[in-house]
């Protein structure tokens, strides 16, 4: 697509698209706004932002508007292909083998449904991206355990992911906005200073 508007039209016309590559510097509405609108309509689509600028703020902005990953130009086709493959696996491209007896994880007030990959808080659905679902699953499977940023990155993004650790912090910040009662004083995903995060106090 040659513009942000055309990208949205194409995505509306073809609902089976699983991964979108968005250039930040699109003519018309920019990649950030396309990402925001895409994410508002579809929590499950994978979104990778392409940016020519390496400023930290751009990366953070892209992730906070709902992107799953970012690649800074110039990049090799092999790197981009690896990122797309990893995202496809996370978004259900590979079938998750779950114990058939354990269809949900429960940690009041949350219930995570492993079969349809949804989260409820006090019975209300919380819309999650595939990365946020992966984070919730990891945390709820390991209550009270301090998880390092590296361990979170390996589990949720995959061992072959060669991006930055910052992606973990930004996605956890975004997840906290959705699940915490008070994001200034998080009680569900707590920070283990200098190490990582854990589920619960």
Sum up the structure in keywords.
7 helices, globular, 201 residues, three-stranded parallel beta sheet, four-stranded antiparallel beta sheet, alpha+beta
Radius of gyration over all CA atoms, rounded: 17 Å
Structural class call reads: alpha+beta
Low-confidence stretches: 93-101
**In percent, how much strand structure appears in the residues?**
15-25%
Q: How does the major sheet shape up?
A: 4 strands, antiparallel
Helix fraction bin: 40-55%
C-alpha end-to-end distance: 47 Å
Shape: globular
Number of helices: 7
Total number of strands: 10
Secondary-structure element string: HEHEHEHEEEEHEHHEE
Strand order of the largest sheet: 4-5-6-7
The overall pLDDT, averaged over residues, is 85
Can you put this structure into words, describing what you see?
It is a single chain. This protein has helices at residues 4-13, 31-41, 56-64, 77-93, 130-141, 149-157, 166-179; strands at residues 19-23, 46-51, 69-72, 104-107, 110-113, 118-121, 124-126, 147-148, 189-192, 196-199. It is α+β, with helices and mostly antiparallel strands and 201 residues long. The model is unreliable at 93-101 (pLDDT under 50). The protein is globular. 41% of the residues lie in helices and 20% in strands. Helix 5 crosses helix 6. The strands form three sheets. The protein has a four-stranded antiparallel sheet, with helices on one face. Strands 1-2-3 form a three-stranded parallel sheet. The protein has a three-stranded antiparallel sheet with strand order 8-10-9. The chain starts with a helix and ends with a strand.
């Amino acid at each position: 697509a040659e513009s942000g508007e055309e990208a949205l039209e194409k995505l509306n016309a073809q609902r089976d698209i699983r991964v979108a590559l968005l250039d930040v510097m699109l003519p018309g509405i920019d990649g950030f706004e396309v990402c925001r609108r895409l994410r508002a309509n579809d929590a499950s689509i994978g979104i990778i932002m392409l940016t020519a600028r390496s400023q930290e703020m751009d990366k953070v902005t892209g992730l906070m508007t709902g992107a799953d990953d970012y690649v800074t130009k110039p990049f090799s086709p092999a790197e981009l292909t690896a990122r797309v493959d990893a995202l496809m696996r996370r978004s259900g491209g590979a079938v998750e083998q779950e114990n058939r007896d354990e269809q949900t994880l429960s940690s009041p007030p949350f219930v995570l449904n492993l079969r349809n990959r949804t989260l409820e808080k006090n019975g209300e659905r919380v819309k999650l991206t595939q990365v946020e679902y992966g984070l919730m699953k990891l945390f709820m499977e390991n209550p009270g355990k301090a998880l390092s940023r590296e361990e979170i990155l390996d589990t949720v993004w995959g061992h072959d992911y060669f991006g930055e650790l910052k992606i973990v912090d930004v996605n956890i910040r975004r997840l906290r906005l959705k699940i915490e009662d008070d994001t200034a004083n998080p009680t569900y995903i707590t920070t283990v200073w200098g190490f990582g995060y854990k589920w619960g106090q």
